[in-house]
Design brief:
- By secondary structure, the protein is an alpha/beta fold.
- It has 3 helices and 5 strands.
- Strand 4 and strand 5 form a beta hairpin.
- The longest helix is centred in the first third of the chain and has 17 residues.
- The chain starts with 16 loop residues before the first helix and ends with a strand.
């Protein structure tokens, strides 16, 4: 196989990868996931599947600006915290996440609740 470099989001002819995945897997994911969803995906992957139940996502700020480059590390910290504390609902998660990052705001858009967290400098 010859070497190749395929960048994230590149279109290949008429093939729309995001739409293909969304059409093929959405019904299966809806059955599998359940009702208590914590969305830790990077924004790019939201194109591949739209969560069909109420869920929580996160946005990280540092000095009032959205963190994109290190957001993966902070999503990892949230996941580690969830694994250690095993919260049973969103309210318990909200209060426990506040112990590691500062909850600045909550944005609601349809089924998605985004918790805006401030990273301590």
């Amino acid at each position: 196989i010859p070497e190749y470099k395929l960048k994230q989001g590149v279109k290949m002819g008429n093939l729309n990868i995001e739409k293909t995945y969304k059409n093929l897997f959405s019904a299966s994911l809806d059955k599998y996931l359940g009702e208590y969803i914590i969305d830790l995906r990077a924004g790019f992957y939201e194109k591949f599947y739209t969560i069909s139940v109420p869920h929580v996502a996160f946005k990280f700020l540092k000095n009032g600006k959205v963190v994109s480059h290190y957001a993966k590390a902070y999503r990892g910290k949230i996941l580690q915290h969830i694994a250690q504390t095993k919260p049973q609902n969103y309210e318990v998660l909200k209060s426990s996440v506040s112990s590691i990052l500062t909850l600045k705001d909550i944005e609601n858009k349809k089924l998605k609740e985004t918790w805006v967290l401030e990273i301590e400098s």
